[in-house]
Amino acid sequence: MSTEILVYGGCVSRDLFEVIFPNEKPKNYIARQSLISAATIPISKPNIELSSDFQKRMVIADFRSSLFSIFTDSPYCTDLVLMDLLGERLGVLELDGGQFLTHSNELVRSGAKETLGNHRLIKFGTEEHLSIWKISAIQLYKTLLQNGLVEKTIVLDTPFADFDENHAPMKKHMGQNSDQWAETYKPYYDFLRSLGIAVLEMDPALAIGSSNHKWGPAPYHYIPEAYDFWADKIQNHGA
């Protein structure tokens, strides 16, 4: 009997899933959809031009604000909700109607951003973004609670690496080093903890980038030992 896992967030959660469950596929994988976008009113979908079917599906799902409805699909058959907040770093676009979209690279490349009319970027880490995000996080908690998923949800606190396994410096991501990213993310993780959602940290000594990661070098593409560490923590979580 397969394990029913929902994966939400970025590549860290998806890569970790493959470490823990190498012979399975997630029940669902939702990416490129910030909590703010997930909690907004769905937006009419324009024509999305992307060569990757996966990226196209994720942009369409972002327009549809699909996340919470997925949580309510056979929730009591779900064994684990594994998520990270990597997608939040992209910020969100606020449209004239008060709706939001994730400011993803895929949205920009699709050409759909040019069809949105008047909009403005709300950057991750600003007081405005955090304030709106907290409202969305409360909606997330209520959705998880209503569907018996709070105790089955684990959020990964994903540190950014400054160096790879060869001690070569990683390129600053969006102009920030690991300490700056940690400071920016901290109030988001703290708020989830205050709601009673489990947030698991990595051993700081394992926050090392991998020079030969399958997705290429990035400060959140770690050495194998980092995923093994998290896999062990998750498998023993609540034991």
What does this structure look like?
The two termini are 21 Å apart. The protein has 8 helices and 8 strands, in the order βαβαααβββαβαβαβα. 36% of the residues lie in helices and 14% in strands.
Instruction: Specify the oligomeric state.
Output: single chain
Order of SSEs, N→C? EHEHHHEEEHEHEHEH
At CATH level 3, the topology is Rossmann fold
Give the overall shape, derived from the CA principal axes.
globular
Which CATH class is shown? Alpha Beta
List its traits:
single chain; globular; alpha/beta; 36% helix; three-stranded antiparallel sheet; five-stranded parallel sheet; 239 residues
Brief sketch in words of this structure:
It is built from 8 helices and 8 strands. The protein is of the alpha/beta class and 239 residues long.
List the SSEs and their pairings.
Elements: E1 5-9, H1 11-20, E2 28-31, H2 35-38, H3 53-64, H4 67-71, E3 80-84, E4 92-95, E5 100-102, H5 105-110, E6 119-122, H6 127-146, E7 153-157, H7 178-195, E8 198-201, H8 224-235
Parallel strand pairs: 1-2, 1-3, 3-7, 7-8
Antiparallel strand pairs: 4-5, 4-6
Helix pairs in contact: 1-8, 6-7
